[in-house]
Write a structure and sequence with these properties.
Number of domains: 1
Low-confidence stretches: none
Radius of gyration: 13 Å
Structural class: mainly beta
Number of strands: 9
Number of helices: 1
Mean pLDDT: 88
Helix content: under 10%
Distance between the termini: 26 Å
Strand order of the largest sheet: 5-6-1-2-3-4-9
Shape: globular
Largest sheet: 7 strands, mixed
Strand content: 35-45%
Length: 117
């Protein structure tokens, strides 16, 4: 079983956290755990270089964001990075500042690359 960590930035306080993901088959990844991490350590650990491609679900045990508790996120249509999502229809990407509006639903299928933290 392949495991990876993806980085998500909290929409409430802009802090970065890691979400451990586990590949169950070719297209299905499951978020199993989340943990607070500072940006320098995330880079040292190489989490900014991880790529996950496919469906990205969460297990029942997944605790969500360690800062705001949400289990949902939105992927920025500009930089491709992830920001916590609490059902807002308008949200700014906490990585690049891109203003996203008319957010109406979440998708399960993603290609997520780390990039610079």
């Amino acid at each position: 079983m392949k495991a990876s960590v993806i980085l998500i930035r909290c929409s409430r306080n802009k802090s970065v956290f890691g979400a451990r993901t586990q590949q169950m088959n070719d297209d299905d990844w499951w978020r199993t755990w989340a943990f607070a991490i500072d940006e320098d350590r995330a880079n040292r650990e190489g989490y900014d270089l991880e790529t996950v491609k496919g469906n990205l679900y969460c297990t029942d045990e997944y605790p969500g964001c360690p800062y705001c508790g949400t289990k949902s996120f939105v992927q920025c249509n500009k930089c491709g990075k992830l920001t916590c999502w609490n059902g807002e229809t308008i949200l700014d990407c906490q990585w690049c500042g891109n203003h996203m509006d008319n957010i109406v639903e979440a998708s399960d299928k993603f290609t997520v690359s780390g990039g610079d933290v």
